[in-house]
Amino acid sequence: MTIRTVVWGENIHEQTNAVVRGIYPDGMHSTIAAALNAGDGIEATTATLQEPEHGLSVERLAGTDVLVWWGHKDHGAVADEVVERVARRVFEGMGLIVLHSGHFSKPFKRLMGTPCALKWREAGERERIWTVNPGHPIAAGLPESFVLENEEMYGEFFSVPEPLETVFISWFAGGEVFRSGLTWRRGAGNIFYFRPGHETYPTYQDANVQTVIRNAVKWAYNPMPAHIGVHDAPNVPVEQALEPITERGPKLHQSGEEGYK
Amino acid sequence: MTIRTVVWGENIHEQTNAVVRGIYPDGMHSTIAAALNAGDGIEATTATLQEPEHGLSVERLAGTDVLVWWGHKDHGAVADEVVERVARRVFEGMGLIVLHSGHFSKPFKRLMGTPCALKWREAGERERIWTVNPGHPIAAGLPESFVLENEEMYGEFFSVPEPLETVFISWFAGGEVFRSGLTWRRGAGNIFYFRPGHETYPTYQDANVQTVIRNAVKWAYNPMPAHIGVHDAPNVPVEQALEPITERGPKLHQSGEEGYK
Amino acid sequence: MTIRTVVWGENIHEQTNAVVRGIYPDGMHSTIAAALNAGDGIEATTATLQEPEHGLSVERLAGTDVLVWWGHKDHGAVADEVVERVARRVFEGMGLIVLHSGHFSKPFKRLMGTPCALKWREAGERERIWTVNPGHPIAAGLPESFVLENEEMYGEFFSVPEPLETVFISWFAGGEVFRSGLTWRRGAGNIFYFRPGHETYPTYQDANVQTVIRNAVKWAYNPMPAHIGVHDAPNVPVEQALEPITERGPKLHQSGEEGYK
Amino acid sequence: MTIRTVVWGENIHEQTNAVVRGIYPDGMHSTIAAALNAGDGIEATTATLQEPEHGLSVERLAGTDVLVWWGHKDHGAVADEVVERVARRVFEGMGLIVLHSGHFSKPFKRLMGTPCALKWREAGERERIWTVNPGHPIAAGLPESFVLENEEMYGEFFSVPEPLETVFISWFAGGEVFRSGLTWRRGAGNIFYFRPGHETYPTYQDANVQTVIRNAVKWAYNPMPAHIGVHDAPNVPVEQALEPITERGPKLHQSGEEGYK
């Protein structure tokens, strides 16, 4: 049984910026997908902003167990309909891994319900990533800390909801800290945010970074059937109550009527 | 120092349904506001759907410490601009208390990022509300459980994010349970959802229910100045880094340029 | 790869009480272990209070991935040394499933750090268990609710720490509710408490209950190597600091000295 | 109404180490208590290891709203009976603020149920403390980060339970990070751990540190009556069930008998 994973890439700077193209000639999404395919149990394909429906049709998402998301330059170009489609699949149990500048992507903001803002500085400074939850599956096989010699700084306050668990915290040479690995569950879907990955540095070629993303895909995978009932607000008729009760008092709704939404 | 509280009421069934008008001749919002004003430390006014900007202008919200929300019949009539305005004030530190059918209100769904769906049955059955967190300030002065003899049933699964804390759980005569009192923080704002309050029953005249809402307003109140920085994603120039660092490597952004949103 | 599971049973009422012996002639632990062995991926053995070191020697625990605990009549008879041994293995990554009256067991109280008290009534009343977290792996394959026709009632307030996630909530015919399925992580170890299982009823022969325990063992299993470093508070010598720093100011400790514990 | 606060100091290095005595001639506890008394709403007194019952008699604790704890050199000298007494009062609603090396104190380990271990280095290096939860009352009035020029380093993994909320994270010049401000609730009691405060540096004379501790005392204060019921596991007789039920099936306990503990 393999985890059907789609790596979504915005795929803009790879085409417009020589530095980025030099590091990721086939696109960042391809590098990430290749890293996922290198291990057991994951079958990763890619999708990009430029494809019809951004490569995320209803059918494609229905067959996706985990979606990995990287975007930066043009979050606004993602169609609202696709954003809502992604959110619905997360509620049904699709895992979602949001990378780096994806903190401002529409699907992440939609699912967090908060600004998802942060401080930043693009100076190629040293980032040291610490595991603060060594028993968490996303930390498997990692050293207690590892270094990315050149990264963009992200600093607190990162305005996301208090996570289920904090897995990684970053130290930056310029003096900041950042909660770099955070988990949430929304509906039946597991969500993980992972900080590193500025496009002008070869971050996704780093072995530790690849391990984290691979672990995250496995952690986020929910093998249960899609929980499609999550969208419904069903009326339970009084005659089907689990304990026998008698209807009492005034009512707004006729029998069998739908609720207000 | 008083907590400036606005009780927002949809104010539809009070005008169109004789039963509801009989129980709440001045509107549910007026009954709730009166209960809040009966205690110390809270100064409650009301706002309704029918007022310009639903009574929630920028100025009004800027002077609101805690907003209480009840809506049911026509959630869709609330303007998206007002929803976003409410969300922004929550991020800045305004408290939000969402009551009963407000689970499907636009502001609540916006802030939770989830479907907020549930099961329901309108049969006037007995609800017993249990405190499962007796040290929480919202439970102050309450018995370990109390009864609402006639209420609409809400049943799990309630598709909201795992709360910070669970304060109340309801037992229903027909066999269901429901997490009836849940807390979250979003940005600098505290949010509390409280289940009871179907409009065909005199729930908001119940002394225990009034105690809960009064406690919740006090708990949600954040006396700090509005955290207006929560909306920003500021660039930190390298020459202003807290620790001296030297800029290295390629860059996407010119000095002083804004980030992509 | 199988999950090496030990089902620990107090094994007293099975010998002293005819009703319990009639339901569980080979002991409750044997019934539970058989249910675990009936599925794939788990290899369950048993241990009891009466064995030397209660069947939980250092060697046995070192080879245990998940420990399931049922006790009731004589919690005090469990040796403190064994309790501490169990706690250490949990911190290192061993999973722990605590059943029913095990809420007052020494290992559970040791790991929770709270009274773990609750209300109770032994009247053979109906319990209905609701899933409030349908995407959680422990809820896999279960209906949205299921009934145990005869069970002991446990009621709130259940004085345990706020859990990582609430998975099940029980409804009782006599009017109470109870958080029946709760998860925590302690060190590298996953802990799950599951409420049902009074010894005078055939609860552990129920298919849904067996599914929950089987799911819980799989969820609690941490495949990483034992995190033995969790017990240490190592000094990091200044000359081994990750960033070069110079020692400054007065010191309490000589170089290489251990910290105070 | 003032918050009756006791600042507990181990009071050893102040007497045996000239550096510490030079900084805190009246003891660290006196400096902390003075800082608490300088603001409104708190009335702080002190207690030390050397006093009878360590200054924490049953009567004294019964009249204590919040206890602040600093210990380091001789955690083992604290009597187990006093530790249990402190834990019981926390369950009943007394707040507890644990400072710095108090991470290894008996009351903290008792209440957390985990090793509470960490890495450390005594090199007088720079610590920068970041607020990662600016809406939390404990962060009121603080800048987004502040510096302690000379502090002992504490590094992750800090083996405590996942907190309710993370309020502060520290950056260290030598390359480590640490979750420096964490909250938990245990029973009806609020607990806050705050990292800074090595005795060879004047940390408790720092205005920001004093603000944090003052905020923490106010946050931890639970004005409700002591929740003495938290220690009980009462039997609910069947004839007093909230919903009428009939006793069924076999029983272990005679009517009115206590449960097993």
TrEMBL record, chains A, B, C, D:
<dbReference type="Pfam" id="PF06283">
    <property type="entry name" value="ThuA"/>
</dbReference>
<feature type="domain" description="ThuA-like">
    <location>
        <begin position="9"/>
        <end position="220"/>
    </location>
</feature>
<dbReference type="InterPro" id="IPR009381">
    <property type="entry name" value="Trehalose_catabolism_ThuA_prok"/>
</dbReference>
<dbReference type="InterPro" id="IPR029062">
    <property type="entry name" value="Class_I_gatase-like"/>
</dbReference>
<dbReference type="InterPro" id="IPR029010">
    <property type="entry name" value="ThuA-like"/>
</dbReference>
<protein>
    <submittedName>
        <fullName>Trehalose utilization protein ThuA</fullName>
    </submittedName>
</protein>
